[in-house]
Amino acid sequence: MNPLPQSPLMAPPQPDYTYTGPEQVDYKDRQIHYERKKRHWQRWVFYVVLSVVFLAMTAYAVYIYSENTKLVNSITEANASLKITTQNLSDSEKQSLERQRKVAELEKSLADSQADLDKQTADLQKAGEDKTKLLSSYNDFKVSLGSSDANIYSFLINYGVGVTADNLIKIPLADYNLGGLDTDGDGLSDTIEVAIGTDASKSDSDGDGFSDRDELLAGYNALGEGKLPVDAAFVDLNRGSILIQVEQNQGAWYINPKDGKRYFLGNPAKALQAIEKL
């Protein structure tokens, strides 16, 4: 039969055999001292590691800031260089456009000069053809002229230049040698009206209310509307020349080099006399 358990209060005290001598107390102190030193060094190691990490992070932040600063400076310099390059390109483009404009103007000037040269060449060729026609006309009319008139007419043929009516009206008419027998009383002799082509029996050939003489001297067309097509280049080309009409009446004209106007010389017999008076 098992005995009943006893209450702890009823249990007899047990003897404590733990050694509590001086050696045991010194050992515990050493343990406590060791633990304190250990924890002390652990704290210092932690602080050192933390400081190293902080310094490393600070150095890394400074490095990142420095690199970012360099990058920003590089971007700024690149932008400045890009602006300069863009400005240079813009200036170059402007210069290129200016050169193109000057080249276009030069080409236009050359084209105009070539056109003027072609026109003058054509006029000279036409004058040569007109003179050839005039020589042929001279051979036809020589028989009907007296010896004196024939010599004068020969002089005009040799030194004169043939001209058509269309080219003759490009030279303004001078108020000279316009008188003589004047059937219509407009101030132009019948002889010059025949040479010009106006109606010798009407003072106003085109019926516009102005006399033939007034219209011609003012530079207007006496046979129609508008002004006569005066051509300064053609005038300059023929200054000092004797022009002889090849299409009708063989009228002789002298282009005065001083004023660039055409002076009517009349018929061959009076042509040299008219020239001597100029």
UniProtKB/TrEMBL annotation:
Under Pfam families, the record lists:
TSP3_bac
What InterPro entries does the database record attribute to this sequence?
Answer: TSP3_bac
Q: List the residue ranges forming a coiled coil, or say none.
A: 94-130
**What UniProt keywords are attached to this protein's entry?**
Calcium, Coiled coil, Membrane, Secreted, Signal, Transmembrane, Transmembrane helix
- Disordered as annotated region, ranges: 1-22
Highest taxon of the source? Bacteria
- Per the record, the major location class is secreted
Q: In its UniProt entry, what is this protein called? A: Uncharacterized protein
Subcellular location per UniProt equals: Secreted
Which stretches are transmembrane?
44-65
